[in-house]
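Figure caption, in words: inputs first, then the predicted bound structure.
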Amino acid sequence: METINAQTTTNTERKKRVFSAIKPTGNPTLGNYIGAMKYWGGMSDEYDCLFAVADLHAITVAIEPKELRENSKRLFALLIALGVDPQKNILFMQSHVPAHAELCWLLNNYTMFGEASRMTQFKDKSRKAPDNVNVGLFDYPVLMAADILLYQTDIVPVGEDQLQHVELCRTIAARFNNRYSPTFAMPEGKVPKFGARVHSLSDPTAKMGKSEGSGDGTVFILDKPEDIMRKFKRAVTDSDSKVKAASDKPGITNLLTIYASLDDCTIEEAEKEFENSDYANFKRRVGEAAVETLRPIREKYEALRKDEGELMRLMQSGAEAASRIAKRTLDKVYKKIGFVRV
Ligand code: TRP
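Bound structure (tryptophan present):
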């Protein structure tokens, strides 16, 4: 819809705001790259972007202190290496902005127990770790709603599994806006159209896992070239020899998806390119594409990790920039509820 008058011009001056976050659990994989992280660096031209390392979310599942610490620094540096320029985006650690935990508490009181109980991820994770069904795990989507709502977010790029949480966030926002007055922008979840799901190379019916124990099925973004090549060479295929995507060829389909995403082409174009290729050659070429895409990222990452002081300074300035925006929303929320402010 395009009406041209002075009013719409002023309204569109503000770029739409994007917020997304990723948990520092495990070691980021090629699946994380293709499904989400790949797109983050390029968004700042069109959108006003905030990206967070969701460290507060990471403790809902048991994690060792040194692992949380290392994963957090690694993810922060990796995001910069992937093209999220801290000069053009606000990149920060969630726990450095206390407004997230504060708004989470406030929003808890506008979230129904039944609504949170219906979250698929809560049910899945409860089933997987029945001895650690903690209240944080239950509250996870409310903290996520706080993340999003603090920044008056318009668009939330997420994986498909997170859409239900964005829906809950909208429910909470609408309830609050109705109870008081318009306070939160209504965010919209957006799943990248293409390559959203990458499967394990050793078991192409399963998701590419983030844990270190996933063996040769998982390619990590920071893997060395020889490891990447070995994993692709060992990738599971199937009994015929056609490089074609099909539902009964999950291994080849997965490899084609990976190749198409890395090469920025369509699956059909990739199929055409490997029409006369055998599986061994195809797997080698997909491996090479991964090596070449990931090499500059790993190199930039390694350079960033050599200067821990600089990394801390970047975290600090990201947190300050995020806090300034978050504080405006949080203050409004406190006032509207009726808290005495000094
Ligand atoms: N829960 C998200 C995931 O697992 C990560 C996340 C935390 C997030 N807070 C967010 C994503 C806010 C989008 C917006 O992928």
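The longest strand covers residues 17-22.
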